[in-house]
Write a structure and sequence with these properties.
Blueprint (H helix, E strand, L loop, with lengths): L1 E9 L4 H12 L4 E7 L4 E7 L5 H11 L2 E3 L1
Antiparallel strand pairs: 1-3, 1-4, 2-3
Length: 70
């Protein structure tokens, strides 16, 4: 089943940052699309919930070096 999750992301300061995060999220198995915007800082991810969880996607954001705002 395909689901969508949006994270508020802190720490992105340029288009390179948002591009790096979008690339990292897009390469996660089970992610069908990832849209990252600098202003507002957010990442919207469409994913297959049979293959990846929102928690795993949040860890990707953090592993790239950004913070997810609750």
């Amino acid at each position: 089943m395909v689901s969508m999750v949006t994270f508020k992301v802190d720490g992105m300061s340029c288009n390179g940052c948002s591009g790096k995060l979008q690339s990292a999220l897009s390469n996660v198995p089970g992610v069908s699309s990832a849209q990252v915007t600098l202003d507002p800082g957010q990442a919207a991810v469409q994913y297959d919930e049979q293959k990846v969880t929102p928690v795993a996607l949040q860890h990707v954001v953090e592993d790239v070096g950004f913070d997810v705002i609750a």
